[in-house]
Amino acid sequence: MKRNLCCAVIMAFLTISGSSRAAETRAMTVGDLKEFCTASDHENSAACRFFIYGVVQGIRLASAAAKGTRRFCIPDDLAVSSMETIVKIAIGQDLMLFPKDSDLEASGFIGAAMMKAFPCRTAKP
After folding, report:
1. The pTM is what?
2. Closest to 35 measured CA to CA, from 45, 23, 21
3. Could you tell me which CATH number the domain at 2-117 has?
4. Which end of the chain is more exposed for a tag (fewer CB within 10 A), N or C?
């Protein structure tokens, strides 16, 4: 099982990073992510899922390191497929109204989608 996951992560990374020099010099955009997430083949689907998961985990780790500055309060047991669904819906809704948002960085968009879906509730005094 770990071996399959490791292979999938490596394939996703290679798919995302691509072989062209231009892909190395810019961040993945919302438009790029939409292409991965709407493709019908397994490799692009895996790239979509693992990119989203990686961004969410990165934000979680950064929040933990910053001690108390959590940006979203995502349940620990939330499935990666649910994260993917949340982001796909957010992309569809956003780009329908704001097509130029396809040029935004995908990682920031994912963070914003998670913040909207799972805001942290503060205790009332």
Report:
1. 0.75
2. 45
3. 1.10.890.40
4. C
Transcribe 35-100 into DSSP letters: HHHH--SHHHHHHHHHHHHHHHHHHHHHHHHTSS--S----TT--HHHHHHHHHHHHHHHHHH-GG
pLDDT digits (tens, 9 = 90+) for 93-118: 999 999 999 999 999 999 999 999 99
28 close to 37: Cβ distance less than 8 angstroms: no
- In the numeric block, the tokens 């205790």 are attached to 123
Q: What is the pLDDT of residues 46-80, one digit of tens each?
A: 999 999 999 999 988 887 777 766 667 888 899 99
CB 8 within 8 A of CB 51: no
Which residues, at least 6 apart from 76, have a Cβ–Cβ distance to it below 8 Å? none
Tell me the β-bridge partners of 105.
29
Extract the tokens encoding 51. 């990119």
CA angle 11, 15, 18 (to 5 degrees): 135
